[in-house]
Every structure is written in C-alpha cells, then in structure tokens.
Amino acid sequence: MFQNKVVVITGASQGIGKEVAKQYVNQGARVVLADINEEQGHITCKEICEKNEKAIFVPTDVRKEQDIIHLMRRAAESFGTIDILINNAGTFQPTSPYDLTVEEWDNIINTNLRSVFLCSREAAKYMKLNSNGGSIVSMASTRAFMSEPNTEVYAATKGAIISLTHALASSLASDKIKVNCISPGWIETGDYEQLRDADHLQHFSRRVGKPEDIAKACFYLTDACNDFVTGINLTVDGGMTKKMIYEE
Fold this sequence. Notes:
With 248 residues, the chain is an alpha/beta fold. The protein has a single domain (6-242), classed as 3-Layer(aba) Sandwich (Rossmann fold). It is 41% helix and 15% strand. Helix 1 (15-26) packs across helix 7 (211-222), helix 3 (65-79) packs parallel to helix 4 (102-127) and helix 4 packs parallel to helix 5 (152-171). This is NAD(P)-dependent dehydrogenase (Short-subunit alcohol dehydrogenase family).
C-alpha cells in the first residue's frame, strides 16, 4: 500500500511517532524520522533500519523555520520527493493560567502549532511536483474539545490545528494534496499492563488506546485510494469523548 512512498514524521523518536514510523516501514515506505532528541532519534532509526535500510534520521527542532526547511530538503534529496507528512511533534506542560509566562506560551505555540503550518508549507512545495500530489496528517487531540485544568495553551494549539487543517485542505486542493488531522484520546505509550480495569472501562471500546491505533488511522488518511477524504478531523478515542459521565 505504501511501497516506496516517502514519509516524513516529526516527533518520531518515541511514543506515537515512533510507532507510526515503524508501521510505515513495515509497509515498505521510505521514512524520514525527525526529532529534537538526537540520541533517541538515532536509536529509533537504527531499530527501523534493521528491517529497512531506507530510513534516515534528521535532527530537527520544529520551533525553527530553518530546521524545517532543511528537513524537507534532506528528505527530497535522499529519496527524490515527499509523498506523506505526519505532523506529530508536540509538547504538553500543564501550568496554571496564573503562572504561565509569555515565553512558555510561545514555546508551546511554536512547537505544537506553528510547526504544523511550517512543515506543511515546506512539504507541500515538494508534494505539488508529484503527479498524484500528497497527503498531510497532523496530530490534534481530544483536548481540542474537552479540558482539564491548567491546559489552556495545549488546548489552544490543538483546537487551532483542526481549523488549520481544513484551511490548508482548501488551499492545497488544486495541487492534489489532502490535508487531515487526527484527535487521539487516551493513547498509552508507557506500560500498558499497569492500566486498571477502571481505565479501560472509561471507553466504549473497553480498552485504552495504543500507538498502533493511531498508525492505522494514519494509514487510512494517507492511502491514495481514500482521495475523497480531506479536511477532516478523525477522532480516535475508543468513544471516550462520547461517554456521558455523571458524578455519584
């Protein structure tokens, strides 16, 4: 399905990004892993290269425009083009709105939101040269439409990604570039076996999500056969945000 497709994934050294990278490699894709964590990025790339030598790691700070430009250039120079972009990089630092500084606000905005626009813009410059365009998927969050205390800036970035998604889908449509986003719910990236029954039962699916659930969603949205799907936000949360909960 993705044989020899060129896939760029930000925030790819661990968690959801790492799993998405592995799954694309398993499908025969040529993968460019990008992350600010160079040590972990090289480790992850080495793991992937044991199965597929067509994978590279490019150290990237998505807060920096020149890093993003360099990332996309390296991808195109290494593999000839860019077919798919997964905007996965992000940070989450709960802070009271009374204590949140402008510097902290800007750091998260630049990491989670501005990077999505810049990465999409730069990747699209290569995608539009392809006869079949390309596909962009960005990670939003169910926190775009529900909240816990002290998550204002994170919620703001994720809500904005949903709006940015349909705006980009409109702007890039003439170049045959699909743009969608995913809102993951509870995706456990740690020790899954330590979860309680009560954790699983918060979901209609009767289980907490796993990173591979998000990889499958990426496959759906980036499959060339699904060219009628663009501009959407796909919620992948086991039904958690639809479950009505009353306090006893």
